[in-house]
Every structure is written in structure tokens, then in C-alpha cells.
TrEMBL record:
Catalysed reaction equations from the record: Random hydrolysis of (1->4)-beta-D-mannosidic linkages in mannans, galactomannans and glucomannans
Protein's name in the database: mannan endo-1,4-beta-mannosidase
GO cellular component: extracellular region
Lineage: superkingdom: Bacteria
Enzyme class: hydrolase
Source organism phylogeny: Bacteria, Pseudomonadati, Planctomycetota, Planctomycetia, Isosphaerales
Localization, UniProt: Secreted
Source organism per UniProt: Aquisphaera giovannonii
Residue ranges occupied by any Glycoside hydrolase family domain in the UniProt entry: 86-373
Short name of one Pfam family: Cellulase
Length: 407
């Protein structure tokens, strides 16, 4: 896409003239605030979901979007460098091994090379002053193990052993590295709570390596109830904290479903009922138990309808939810902030996202990650340092006021 000269110059004028300062210090919770060495830390970052997979050459769609491993790795480097140039404080990425075929390409065949590549990626981010939120995808190891999703809660299962092995290796490797901002468990897992998977399609055969055990149709054992999801959060967060006392852990949740109460009450024979606004807020507060140290929500707008009958638009629902979480005394991460209608591609001014950042700054939200950065899989939502200069400038202003304690 051709971009106007004035837009390019506007962004170039606000780019730093020197290399980014290295990150320092570990983030701790002080009630609803995040602090580094006693000073409050708040920041805007970005999502590059496939970051390590294009850097390591394992992404399933690599050939389609990049052509070669060399070009994919260069794209990963550019995404990090552009985040640094644009003043973004951190990158959130999906840090699990990936689909079974992706895991087989490197992690399963040569784990030493896999971790060397991850070390290189961390060193790149460290050198550019960009922190990381690795989403460890703890509920995604069952496919490669050929077992139902619920096996992650069974300590005798292959799924549980594979998950623990990966998480232990990852967390142990970077537990003393302030490049890690937070550890995240999974992406949007609570949205799957009390959803009966019996008879539903699972991952297709094409994402498995030859000879793998393929389960293409779900069973009841692929379902996770509310209670099972909370147990997973408690167990995994406690396991990570037993290895790494330096970093807080967040769930990666988007939030709860608008009908979460009726799902919980009627599973598996679901009978739909919309939650009231009071029920919805109560569910949001209850969904992410200790020892999780940071709440996680994902917000898209302005078209997201949310719970029926609450009388609030997407921005005001986000505001009231943030206030409730702040009153609970827990910091808040907006792990994904995106636009739906209009999308970023059709709104170069990113009006709703900028209004959200205004609200987030006023309400004391700690961390916000824009969705999405340098991600060709979703061109309608993709941002870069020059695509939306007004939004990038707004994010930089936020960080200049609130993220200095991390430098």
C-alpha cells in the first residue's frame, strides 16, 4: 500500500535518534499497580503472535506468506526493530511449540537448536529495549500427544509430561532475565470453558507430521469446565512461580462469555441464558484465581455487542470492568486491543483504539498490547510503525509518561 509522504514524515519525526535503552528490573505487583524498583510501570506494546516461529522457520504458513525461511527470519527481525523504533515497550507472542507439525520441525527433532534460536531472539529483543510476554500455550500440548485436551490435568498423561517439560525448560532458561515482562499461560482459554467438544471438529490432519496420532473429532474429554480451567490456572501458575519468583504470571484470558453462568450451570446439556451485567462482572472477577498475579482481558471495538441488556458500549464496558478489577487490587493487562468495525485497515486514524488508550490512561490500566503487528495472516488488523501514525504517536506518548521505570 502506498502511504502519504506527510504520514511517513510525521512518524519519522518522532522516532528515537539513538538506540533503545536496555530493559532493567523485574515487574512486581503493588495492589492494582505494576512497579519496578518501587516506581509504577505502565506500558503499551504490540502482539506479534508468530514471532518465534518465523524467526526459527517453523510457522505452518511460512511458505505462503514469506516464501523462504530467510525472508521469514528477516521479517521477525524487522518486526522487533520496528517495535523498538516506534517506541513500543513489549511484544506479546505465542511461545509454545505450535501445531504438531510445527513442533516436529525443530523442537521435536533438535531441541538444542530450538533453544539456541530462542536465545538469539531474546538477545535481539534485549538489544532493542523491547520486553516480551511469552504465552506458553499450556493447554495445547494434547494434540501432539494424541490425547484429549483434558489430559493436561492428569499427571500421568503424556500431555501433562510434555507440558511440564516445555514450561520447565522455558521458564528456567529466562527466569533471571528482565527481558521477560510477564509469563502468560494460554490464549483465551476461559472462552472454551463449559463448551461441550463432543462431536466437534478438532485440528485437521494437515497440521500433523506423517505417522502422528490424529484425533479429528472431539469427545467430552476434550472439554474443559470452569472448574477445570481454574484448576489449570492455579496449578500452572504455582508451578511457574516455584521455578521463577522474579516474574508475575497472567492467564492470557480474553474474558468470560456473555452466557458464562448458564454454561457453568447446565454443562454439558447447555441451555442458553444471557448473564446480567452484575453476573458478568462477578464472573470476570472470579475467573482468574490466585496465584495469577495480573488479570488479562482482550478488547475489540467498537462493534462488539458484549452482554445483552447492560446498556453500555464496548468502551464503557471496558472502563467499568477495569474499575472493578482495580477495586479488587490486581493489575490489568489488555493482552489484545484491536478494532473490529471499522478495522484498522479501513480506519487509518484508529479512532476507537486511541479513545481506548485515553480511557486506559485515565483508569490506571497497566499494560495494553495492540493487535496486531506485522502479521500478514490478518491484513485488516495489521499495524506497523508507519501505517497508523496517529495511533503510534499516542502509544509513544503513553510510554513516555509511564514506562520510563523500565529503562
Amino acid at each position: 500500500m502506498k502511504r502519504g509522504i506527510l504520514a511517513v514524515l510525521a512518524v519519522a519525526a518522532c522516532l528515537p535518534a539513538r538506540a533503545a535503552a536496555p530493559t532493567k528490573g523485574f515487574v512486581a505487583a503493588d495492589g492494582p499497580r505494576l512497579v519496578i524498583d518501587g516506581r509504577e510501570f505502565r506500558a503499551v506494546g504490540v502482539n506479534v503472535p508468530h514471532l518465534h516461529q518465523i524467526y526459527l522457520g517453523t510457522w505452518f504458513h511460512l511458505d505462503q506468506f514469506y516464501g523462504t525461511r530467510e525472508k521469514a527470519k528477516a521479517a521477525a527481525v524487522e518486526a522487533v526493530e520496528d517495535a523498538s523504533r516506534s517506541g513500543m515497550a513489549f511484544i506479546r507472542f505465542f511461545a509454545g511449540p505450535g501445531y504438531p507439525i510445527e513442533a516436529h520441525r525443530l523442537y521435536g527433532r533438535d531441541p538444542a537448536a530450538y533453544w539456541r534460536g530462542m536465545d538469539e531472539l531474546f538477545a535481539l529483543c534485549r538489544s532493542k529495549g523491547v520486553r516480551l510476554i511469552p504465552c506458553l500455550n499450556v493447554a495445547s500440548f494434547h494434540a501432539d500427544a494424541g490425547e484429549p485436551r483434558g489430559a493436561v490435568l492428569d499427571a500421568s498423561s503424556r500431555t501433562h509430561r510434555a507440558c511440564r517439560s516445555y514450561v520447565r525448560a522455558f521458564v528456567s532458561r529466562y527466569k533471571d532475565d528482565p527481558t521477560v515482562l510477564l509469563w502468560e499461560l494460554e490464549n483465551e482459554l476461559m472462552l472454551a470453558a463449559d463448551v461441550d467438544m463432543r462431536g466437534d471438529a478438532l485440528l485437521p490432519r494437515g497440521v500433523y507430521p506423517e505417522g502422528a496420532t490424529v484425533r479429528e473429532v472431539g469427545t467430552r474429554e476434550d472439554s474443559l469446565t470452569w472448574e477445570m480451567t481454574q484448576r489449570l490456572y492455579r496449578d500452572q501458575a504455582a508451578f511457574i512461580r516455584s521455578i521463577d519468583p522474579n516474574h508475575l504470571v497472567t492467564s492470557g484470558d480474553a474474558g468470560v462469555r456473555p452466557e458464562a453462568t448458564s454454561r457453568r450451570e447446565t454443562f454439558p446439556d447447555f441451555r442458553y441464558r444471557d448473564d446480567s451485567w452484575r453476573e458478568h462482572l462477578a464472573n470476570e472477577l472470579a475467573a482468574q484465581p490466585e496465584p495469577l498475579g495480573v488479570y488479562s482481558l482482550h478488547h475489540y471495538g467498537p462493534a462488539d455487542p458484549g452482554p445483552k441488556g447492560c446498556g453500555l458500549d464496548a468502551l464503557e464496558r471496558a472502563r467499568h470492568t477495569a474499575r472493578a478489577i482495580r477495586a479488587a487490587g490486581v493489575p490489568l493487562l489488555i493482552g489484545e486491543l484491536g478494532q473490529d468495525k471499522p478495522t484498522f485497515r479501513s480506519d487509518p486514524e484508529a479512532r476507537w483504539a486511541r479513545a481506548y488508550l485515553d480511557m486506559a490512561e485515565a483508569e490506571g490500566i497497566s499494560l495494553i498490547a495492540l493487535w496486531v503487528w506485522h502479521f500478514p495472516w490478518q491484513p485488516e488488523l495489521t499495524l506497523d510503525g508507519r501505517s497508523h501514525p496517529t495511533l503510534i504517536r499516542r502509544a509513544r506518548e503513553f510510554n513516555s509518561r509511564h514506562a520510563a521505570s523500565g529503562r
